[in-house]
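Fill-in record for Sugar transport protein 10-like.
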Amino acid sequence: MAGGVYVGGGGGSSYEGGVTIFVIFTCVVAAMGGLLFGYDLGISGGVTSMESFLSKFFPSVFHKMKNETANQNQYCKFDSQLLTLFTSCLYIAALVASFFASSVTRKFGRKISMFVAGLVFLLGSILNGIANNIIVLIIGRLLLGIGVGFANQSVPVYLAEMAPTKIRGALNMGFQMAITIGILMAGLVNFGTAKIKGGYGWRVSLALAAVPSFMMTLAAIFLPDTPNSILERGNPEKAKKMLKKIRGTDNVDNEFQDLLAATDAAQKVENQWTNITQPRYRPQLVICILVPFFQQLTGINVIMFYAPVLFMTLGFGDEASLMSTVITGGVNMVATLVSILAVDKFGRRVLFLQGGVQMILCQIAVGVMIGMKFGLSGVGSFTKTEANWILFSICAYVAAFAWSWGPLGWLVPSEICPLEIRSAGQAINVSVNMLFTFIIGQVFLSMLCHLKFGLFFFFAGFVIIMTIFIAFFLPETKNVPIEEMNRVWKAHWFWGKYIPDEAVNFGRQDKVVV
């Protein structure tokens, strides 16, 4: 099989201990960091469709929207670089912050990074809520971006390190689940605040970002740090005590010895950034770059933060656009729950491949329906039945993403890197994700204006490429302990040549078949 399959035969793949209430509670609380990212993804699109917000900060877009005629090109009516900058500048800040967060996460622990994330995001949400000009608005967005960068750097690593191997996928996906809850919450908030008389509904929407950020800040104060992080900072007795607590047993010697060996290897590394470029880490480097790159080229975030604008472009009314966004947000959350239940049973590859095929079919369907109705001129409108079919196809696409590339795009990079390059690998993952989120967010409305319905075929083409990549180049990592992941790469038909024999950890007698 091209991907390779790992079969544990004892040893490191059968550590003592079980699933404790303590570890589930800490992982659920930590996963709330995803609320920051999710709420922002969902809130920005709804706010940018509110007339009171557009008239105050983006009057040119507002006048173009109000002065539309029957023959107006629907593809181009929201095309504004300043409007997209409001949405996408957050992700450039997150990109830069992720590199600083990498050092903070390694030197001071995962929970310190989570605390910084919550605090800075809180400040940004306050600024956005009181903004009276575009400069304050953008500064607030930049602070939100710093918070997102720190949260996305630290939370997935925290979850991967705290979770027992057999449910690592499900607990790590709590981060993506929190993102989807944040998106749904934002959709509901926008739907409610759009009805507020007086034109200040957008302020309420933006300021309410303070709620998840306050929760994150408070949680980070009380959460314990991971045994890996404690050990990395030179406290072996405290690390072993924490490992016993999260595993619910005193017999943690095997796992602790693996952590010690990984920590010793990590401490010999003077510079993670130089180290990760070595051939022996080529699989991890490629995956940490291509998975977040491909995740953004699915086109999902243009649906998430421009959903109300997109639905209005397709002829939905103001209220119908916001309600459609709530519907897609609900589908997103439910489908992520499906992924949590399935990921440790069926594995990562099955979800990646099935989700990819479904997204391809849905994007082609949406492109065809829009093309038949609007053509190249962009003039036209949908009947109620046709609009419902569009909404159904977009929901099916969102569902496919939510049980595949959504959660797995964060899970897989966080679980494949050995400790000596883990912070650097996650920083690369976050920075590539944020860079292409920024690029796609910044150019989407212009792409819609110029590529028209072909935009959906553009994204479908990339999903075909990424699905082929997964089929041939990503091995299955289900039920593989993090510290023994090199066994999987060594057994892979392509990546095996990069992994030296001494990198296969600890000489365990597990079997690997391909």
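KEY FINDING: Strands lie at 5-7, 511-513.
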